[in-house]
Recover the amino acids of this structure.
């Protein structure tokens, strides 16, 4: 690692690395195969301060910087990407959105249990017909006295079944485009919000992904997050941080895939020697290591910009784009280098390959990241 870490960052990295190796990794394969949500592990992560890392202690968090968060998230992802996505959505999107846009009451009521890891959070923006283009969402929130009444369906919601607290966006004025979208915080106890069936996914199978159905869901106006019409900007801001998180997850999974490949190629004998002695395979490992390091620099740079409170929207998209595409190349090569064994569930590279596939899709596809980056570079935002 070329970046100079502080003593605190080093300490967090080493603590999480040990926890990931000893607690998170051992049952990751079983959880993936049996679709077991890592509830106990997430509770322990909360106790270690990993579920609201960038939130100050007075709101239940551990008050670390983004760099420490990225280091920790990469370690968890290398052990179990399903656990990492729950951690990522919770830290980057849910906790930070309430911290930056919530009022004091909302912070006490919702942020403290989330940041301390007692509650799991979800972020509900996507809909069946509104993925890359969330402005087209159809969920409506109609003002009724001191409440809003929400109706609609959200799709592909990470932790949709297990979350106690959900940030949801809805249209409060259909005529205003993105300025007609408002964010709300909704508790699992609200009888108007129900999770749909679990998606049967290719990867991240231990994390639950569901629809969230809102049927005459009455939400007090006091649980509106930010002003009316600010929901889209809140979601975009949350996704900026989220995209650094996907970059960190990508590094973690890629690093794990490379390490598994190094071990395998050293042990595997063909043509009378270890296959790690063949130049063709050595060069693939060299490419893997180089690409992982390049991704790390992009993710660290975006994290540092965020910590310096600079505008990091474009750098977050660059980090997400490059790292998520990198991990797909690295895990595909890892499977290839394991030969027939890489195609079996006996070797972890098969899981890494499946888990990595969604990284170029969720929290903004690679194509969306290229829109954000080109708008940033050309400084002449092209209307979609
Ligand atoms: N931060 C703050 N505000 C922002 C912003 C940002 N990063 N990006 C845009 N905005 C604001 C703009 O300033 C603008 O506001 P004003 O008019 O007041 O200036 C407003 O938002 C609209 O911006 P655009 O005109 O750029 O919006 P657009 O409709 O052209 O779309 C987009 C831009 C980048 C394509 C955006 O729609 C986008 O990111 N789409 C992808 C959505 C996405 O990532 N979905 C994933 C869902 S979460 C998930 O994956 C599930 C999970 O649980 C893990």
């Amino acid at each position: 690692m070329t970046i100079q870490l502080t003593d605190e960052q080093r300490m967090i990295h080493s603590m999480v690395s040990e926890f990931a190796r000893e607690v998170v990794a051992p049952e990751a394969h079983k959880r993936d195969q049996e679709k077991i949500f890592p509830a106990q592990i997430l509770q322990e992560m909360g106790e270690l301060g990993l579920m609201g890392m960038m939130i100050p202690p007075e709101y239940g968090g551990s008050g670390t910087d983004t760099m420490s968060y990225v280091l920790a998230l990469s370690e968890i992802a290398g052990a179990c990407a399903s656990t990492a996505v729950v951690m990522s959505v919770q830290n980057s999107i849910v906790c930070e959105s309430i911290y930056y846009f919530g009022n004091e009451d909302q912070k006490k009521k919702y942020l403290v249990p989330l940041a301390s890891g007692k509650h799991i959070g979800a972020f509900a923006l996507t809909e069946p017909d509104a993925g890359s283009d969330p402005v087209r969402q159809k969920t409506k929130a109609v003002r009724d006295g001191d409440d809003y009444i929400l109706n609609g369906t959200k799709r592909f919601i990470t932790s949709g079944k297990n979350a106690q607290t959900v940030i949801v966006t809805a249209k409060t004025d259909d005529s205003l485009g993105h300025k007609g979208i408002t964010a709300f915080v909704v508790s699992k106890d609200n009888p108007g919000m129900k999770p749909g069936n679990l998606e049967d996914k290719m990867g991240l199978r231990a994390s639950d992904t569901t629809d969230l159905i809102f049927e005459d869901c009455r939400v007090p106006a006091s649980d509106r997050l930010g002003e009316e019409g600010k929901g889209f900007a809140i979601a975009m801001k949350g996704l900026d941080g989220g995209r650094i998180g996907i970059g960190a997850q990508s590094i973690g999974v890629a690093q794990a895939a490379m390490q598994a490949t190094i071990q395998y190629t050293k042990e595997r004998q063909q043509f009378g020697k270890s296959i790690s002695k063949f130049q063709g395979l050595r060069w693939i490992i060299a490419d893997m290591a180089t690409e992982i390091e390049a991704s790390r620099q992009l993710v660290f740079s975006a994290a540092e910009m965020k910590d310096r409170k600079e505008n990091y929207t474009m750098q977050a998209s660059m980090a997400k784009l490059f790292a998520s595409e990198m991990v797909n190349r690295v895990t595909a090569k890892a499977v290839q280098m394991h030969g027939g064994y890489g195609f079996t569930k006996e070797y972890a590279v098969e899981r890494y390959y499946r888990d990595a596939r969604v990284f170029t899709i969720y929290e903004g596809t690679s194509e969306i990241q290229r829109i954000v980056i080109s708008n940033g570079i050309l400084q002449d935002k092209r209307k979609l």
The two ends are 39 Å apart (CA to CA). Residues 89, 123, 125-126, 132-135, 156-158, 178, 232-233, 236-237, 239-240, 313, 362-364, 368, 371-372, 384 surround acetoacetyl-coenzyme A (CB under 6 Å). The chain is about 50% helix and 15% strand. The longest helix spans residues 231-267.
